[in-house]
């Protein structure tokens, strides 16, 4: 009997340790909205529909991030959560995608463990970082837990009003191998708040994954716009195209900064966005929309001083022999 108890304890310990190690990263899945026709408080003891079991398998959540319906009463939205931990502090960023992924809304959350509550973590809405939708984006809170399955680790829970705790719906996410793109300014501010009562120490550098992408298009030009997705603290960027300075001393804000470049017919065109200087807080970050005819690419660019992001873009030359 004692051996069985010891074995169960060890299994629980290693499971908890595994889940703890896999919290950090990018989680993709769905956020669902309850229909006003549903009285969620009568559906289950936790006020949640029986979807926490219905959406537990990886295939249902992750294959193509397909949108699902339950009796046409719940609306699902594709989304991702990025989770970053530094020095025992955690921050999260949720990005929700509109129709055809052409519009996004991005939210910042602070994270705290809730060991005595039903869900393991409380993610408190702090700010709206990017809002490309026409409607106003209101803050909300998330309450969620991590659960290990045979094939993956899931992050699931509810989202609710930050004050009344009225439940709006639920979410289900699965861990991916994507790189975290949270603006480092936000994490450095969090670390500074933690160390206010402690001796001043240099904040650790947060790993920044470089952006290098290649695109092929039949467009004759590219259109882009930049929005600061962190603190408005005078970060300064420069934009280079085919070795020439296109825009200098760009200070992104909450209103888009637009730029355009004509693509040459040479085999590859080169676009570079470089961080010239950081603002008040260490690090910089912007959300980039890059338009190529009917295709719109979206990037979260994360920088420290002198970091850069690069693209090589090939313009398809029309086949004159076919005319």
Strand content: over 45%
**Count of alpha and pi helical runs:** 3
Helix amount = 10-25%
Radius of gyration: 22 Å
The CATH architecture of the largest domain can be named as Beta Barrel
Major beta sheet summary: 8 strands, antiparallel, barrel
CATH topology of the largest domain: Lipocalin
Secondary structure tally: strands: 17
Structural class: mainly beta
Question: Shape, please?
Answer: globular
Name of the level-1 CATH class of the largest domain: Mainly Beta
Low-confidence stretches: 5-19, 36-72
Q: Report how far apart the termini are.
A: 83 Å
Strand order of the largest sheet: 1-2-3-4-5-6-7-8
Integer count of domains = 2
Mean pLDDT: 79
Task: Tell me about this structure.
- There is one protein chain.
- By secondary structure, this protein is mainly beta.
- The protein has 2 domains: 16-180, Lipocalin; 208-316, Immunoglobulin-like (Sandwich).
- The chain is built from 3 helices and 17 strands.
- The protein has an 8-stranded antiparallel barrel with strand order 1-2-3-4-5-6-7-8. The protein has a 5-stranded mixed beta sheet with strand order 9-17-14-11-12, with no helix packed on it.
- The longest helix has 20 residues, at 2-21.
- The relative contact order is 0.13.
- The model is unreliable at 5-19 and 36-72 (pLDDT under 50).
